[in-house]
Amino acid sequence: MTNPTLAAGEVERHLRARRDGGRGLLMPYVTGGIAPGWTDYLSAFADAGADAIEVGLPFSDPTLDGVTIQRASAAALARGASTRRILADLAGLPDLGVPLVASTYYNLVLHDGPEAFCAALRRAGVAGLIVPDLPVHEAGELMDVAAAAGVEPALLASPTTPPTRLAEIAARSRGFVYAVSLMGTTGERDGLAASAAELAGRIRRVSDRPVLLGFGISTPDQARRARRHADGVVVGAAVMRRVLDGAGPDDLRAFIATLRQALDQECDRSG
Amino acid sequence: MIIKPEDLAGSGPGGDDPDPRGKFGVFGGRFVPEALIPALDELAMAYDKAKHDEEFLREFDHLLRTYAGRPTIITEVPRFGEHAGGARIILKREDLTHTGAHKINNVLGQALLTRRLGKTRVIAETGAGQHGVATATAAALMGLECVIYMGAVDCERQALNVARMKLLGATVIPVHNGSRTLKDAINEAFRDWVTNVDHTHYVFGTVAGPHPFPMMVRDFARIIGVEARRQVIDLIGRLPDAVCAAVGGGSNAIGIMHAFIGDGDVQLHGYEAGGRGLESGEHALTLTAGSIGVLHAARTYVLQDEEGQTIESHSISAGLDYPGVGPEHSWLKDIGRATYHGITDAEAMDAFALLAKTEGIIPAIESAHALAGALKLGRELGSDATILVNLSGRGDKDMGTAMTYFGL
């Protein structure tokens, strides 16, 4: 890791530049195909100050997701959402000015083969990838073809990950390192888990790559606290609960703006 | 002792253990959230230590003999065999174990390991309820807290087993997501495990899931075939010509087949649930009609649509109603060592009734799939053939289904 920026792809360059400019990073999530005109949520996120946007490709068996994203995935699939259709929708979008990061389970990556999958992502303008059921030692076949296609797969680290493994994850991750704040599934929580700070700190000690905290971060206050330990946050279930309750892109623009504001205030305070 | 160190595979002659990453060829592995990796590492180490530990083997052996009812007998069934082209049919009687199915073997091994891991709570998924009952039983025996996840559809069709689990002190949580069957119960159990892994062991019920489960569950079930191999040789003076078993996730099948893998002349046949037939689309023909994917943490054959979404399976038997299969079966299929076939609901129910009427034994509907397979295979192989069938469980739990099906 002598000069990580040299090899960094588009997602990592973008996130590093913003982080190094003193900004707390914000990556909201939306389940692809959740509603007609769902890509309007992406423009709303970008307008409200997102630094990257995570788009979920729904899978029938989301074993790491809590009830909200399970419901969102099932609803999207019931509407006929599929990897192919979601990527086609994304391909038709104008440049949002922030990188798109797909997230899905490994069966969908494997279905047409990791090479074809990464090529399809790239054609749709997606530069990053999160696969929560793909731990570092199974990731070999994806990492190589993803690099060739120009896709950056971010690996996940967990509070129980031992030090040597953590160093390996941080070194092999691309784009950023996804720090899973707690032991559990995705979903809103009342407070920021104590394990979040420790994990983010441990990753930062072994890597200069941007560190995003996710799982259970659902309020401006939690985002502000998370920002003290990590470079930024991923907010998924808190967005999707609102979407499932009928909130439109304007409502979500307002919600994301509150998160943006919280992160900016925390930067001013610490800066 | 009925169990010896070499009876737990790995030190056996087959050379067919997975590699250190849990791969049988391209199958298996660990497609799990990072959060579970340390627990799986800990489990794999604890198991590796235990299987070479005299004390552990003694405890396991003691429970198998004095609690589970091992060794189980074999029973020759000539009146049933008349319908199988006159072939000699021999049943391995796992239905006679405590709790009434082969699941108890695996569960006792894992419960002992749970104690060694210092964990106080066990969770499990269950389809037909047999694995749930076995887990609740072992938890009661060892004083462990026990939570069982069961699809809401299965809770209905196996109400008797739900009551048994509750009586044994377990909490049964009906799962209302997805197809509300075994697949979704497993999803929910994984969600519990990733949240409570510090004090909880997931007693996985079949030879699927992440490494080391496919190997470990196989090893604990392997005693079925080890005993049967000796017993058949004692009875007929030679090895059987074929071994038959039903395949859902595949634990009873691997349990009886594994001791015969090195016996090249012994055919190995697995029978999946054909449901209403391949053309109907309502089946659980994972190995015969599926394609390679990743489901429940292992790369294996999966029933999936053209987009990679898991297809809901169908079977009259809750225990075989699963769109995945253990990775070692995928490997045995691809290397051609075992052959897998489909048996429809109707064929299974015919065999279910036939065994009851000709031999006075009511099999589990799961096991009836293997019996139906043996009827066909016997007619192919002829009257000189000897076929060993794993009678993996008894049919008491299926009487509700049988009453409806046969109008009893």
Question: How does this structure look, described?
Answer:
The complex is a heterodimer of chains A (271) and B (408). Chain A has 271 residues and is α/β, with parallel strands linked by helices. Chain A has a single domain, classed as Alpha-Beta Barrel (TIM Barrel), CATH 3.20.20. In chain A, 49% of the residues lie in helices and 14% in strands. Chain A has 13 helices and nine strands. Chain A has helices at residues 4-7, 10-20, 39-47, 67-78, 83-91, 106-111, 114-123, 140-149, 163-172, 194-206, 220-227, 237-244, 249-270; strands spanning 25-31, 53-56, 100-103, 126-130, 152-154, 156-157, 177-180, 211-214, 232-235. In chain A, helix 3 (39-47) links the parallel strand 1 (25-31) and strand 2 (53-56). Chain A is globular, with a radius of gyration of 17 Å. The two termini of chain A are 27 Å apart. By secondary structure, chain B is an alpha/beta fold. Chain B has 16 helices and 14 strands. Chain B starts with 22 loop residues before the first strand and ends with a helix. Classes of the chains: A alpha/beta (271), B alpha/beta (408). The interface between A and B is large, with 40 and 37 residues.
The SSE string of chain B, one letter per element, is: EEHHEHEHEHEHHEHEHHEHEHEEHEHHEH
Number of helices of chain A: 13
Strand % of chain B is 15-25%
Main pleated sheet of chain A: 9 strands, parallel
CATH superfamily of chain A: Aldolase class I
In brief, what are we looking at here?
By secondary structure, chain A is of the alpha/beta class. Helices cover 49% and strands 14% of the residues of chain A.
